[in-house]
């Protein structure tokens, strides 16, 4: 039996109202999902910022920048090494020309401050195959050649693995992507420079990853002056009778030197 037109109209109107109701429900669900996703993103960014702040803090108040120029400090350090640790000096490579440093800066899209450039113009790190105390420029830490340091920095910014692994790595240690290493111990601990930080924030620093400790220096000059002081006072020294020669360190005295030239985040 055919339905009357009024009945059909009522039926169609009911279907339309149901469809509209369902559409509104789906709209509310979609809006709710969007709000939840936005909240998760904001929470993730906040958590990442807090994690970064705890793992890579801004420097505490630091001592004044030393008055000597970097060339003066390096010249003094060279003289001290000739007398107190000639094996260390013998293992260092010749310095780079200003043009060579500029080429590396262009290649790796980084601009080094003059004090950092001066270090590599003095000596371009230690030889990779050195087998004496000279392999370590300071105890346990090798002076990394500039090109190697920049290539290591570039490699750290290209983490392998799956997308989730890459995202996890960025979340946890992504703050290190801008660091490049001056002196390195092969365990990811060392003396670093971060070109993205201002000097007052602690652009030059030592980091010991195992306990999250830092020593921040207001300038690379303070770091190199501290190293010169340690060699001059015999705090860094070649162990007598060691074969091949090995570097030794008086930790208590070197700690006092770093307190003079820098500032720890664990004071």
Report on this structure.
With 267 residues, the protein is α+β, with helices and mostly antiparallel strands. It contains nine helices and ten strands. The protein has helices spanning 5-55, 70-84, 86-90, 98-108, 114-122, 146-156, 163-173, 220-232, 251-261, and strands at 92-94, 123-126, 142-143, 180-184, 190-193, 204-208, 213-217, 236-238, 247-249, 263-264. The strands form three sheets. The protein has a six-stranded antiparallel beta sheet with strand order 3-4-5-6-7-10. Strand 6 and strand 7 (213-217) form a beta hairpin. Helix 2 (70-84) packs parallel to helix 8 (220-232) and helix 8 (220-232) runs antiparallel to helix 9 (251-261). The termini are far apart. The model is unreliable at 40-50, 130-134 and 163-172 (pLDDT under 50).
The general outline is elongated
Overall SS class: alpha+beta
Into which percent range does the helicity of residues fall?
Answer: 40-55%
Characterize the largest beta sheet: strand count, sense, and whether it forms a barrel. 6 strands, antiparallel
- Percent of residues in β-strands: 5-15%
Which sequence of SSEs, written as H and E, runs from N to C?
HHHEHHEEHHEEEEHEEHE
Unreliable stretches = 40-50, 130-134, 163-172
For the termini, the CA-CA separation is 92 Å
In angstroms, what is the radius of gyration?
A: 29 Å
Count of strand segments: 10
What is the residue-mean pLDDT, rounded to a whole number?
82
SS element count, helices: 9
Strand order of the largest sheet: 3-4-5-6-7-10
